Predict the 3D structure of the following.
Amino acid sequence: MRWQELENEMKGDYDQKQRMKNHRRFGDMYLTPEKPEDVMPPKDLADMTRKETGAFPVDLHTNHTQMRYLDHSFDNIRRFKRYTHFQHLQYDQRMIPERLLFLGPDLAAAHFLVHRGAAIKFLDDDIWYKRDKKGYSLPGRKVPGLFIEAIDASGTELMFEGFENLHDLSHLRMLRLANCEYIDDWVMGKIGGSMPNLEMLDLSGCYKISAKGLMGLKHLNKLRYLRLEGLSHVKDLGQAALLLEEAIPNLTVLGVDYVEQMENLEAETRLLENPRVVQDARGNAFAEDDNGRLFYLNGSINERTAVDDEDRPIMTSTIRREIPEMDEVEFEKLDRLSGGKLRHMLLGSPSGHLWGEQVERILQHEAKLLTEDSIPVDPKMLPKEKRTLRLPPNLDEREEWKSILQSEMIKFSKEIADQETSPPKKLIEKQGNL
């Protein structure tokens, strides 16, 4: 800074002090104003800042401009709140070394679980400890010989980070995690590597688990019962269950409908055998029409939809894809083989939970509007009761699949029964030698 500028600043400060002293003077006494701006001469408009002119701050104006590019739908707000809650749970379930040091592994795990809504049972104790309106009563210091034998964390928000607190539970025999929405494949690996004495495990309703994740339990050699109810949507669940029963001796997997798994495998095989179906490198299946356009049928593409709190569609896409150029019977076969996804995606993915009901409701509504406006409706997009009349009666081959599957099951059960009633081959050979 040059000396001339410094001198001007000092002169300006001196003038400001003099004006403030002369604002209200009573002899040798004076009152200064609350704001120095009240006694200073007004600035020129070109020298004023946005704050001095009363305009919006630049930061506020920038944020307001960027708001146009944000998704303010109810569905996105729900996802944002769900994500912030997920981050809070990650921090809340972190490992606290001091708790493990002062309470020991079992009692520290008991405090962690009961505080978050789970129930625990100690070894040689018939009482289940759980949090109620008055709180819960657990020892506040390390107790020798106190071991957790069973944990019921069903319906809680236990996640992967929380399993760091379940360390060295050497006497744990039962673990119930039914309907825990944050239990995923990472947790399976954690359970398989840190709970060697586990005998009973309940994973019913944990919809984020995959067949590959279940293979993380193959090292639990003492596991006797594994419950997998409510996981019929998991691909290759029956195959994973059979592999686990083969890898772990004396294991019984409950809740797996092997018949349904066979039917799903048969439907997927029939779908991929269709000459119109092609696959990409990720295993996603697409139907190719006469014009070479691809329509998604099955795979790993995100099918998230905009739904309200009751899983009803908030809106459907107003952008309609062109109807595939193919025969009506071929279109209906592909739609049924894909479980209704082909027609479901053409309607803008109205709901990922109630495909049949929501799709038919939209088809009826749009067909009614087009009919009132005298616009022809494509036969492929007619409601179910109208398009059924146009299709041949022997279109659905699922009943044929079921009959073939049932006959094979009966044949297999007879072979097992014959093997159980007939003497072993080695015994017959031994008797012949004698």
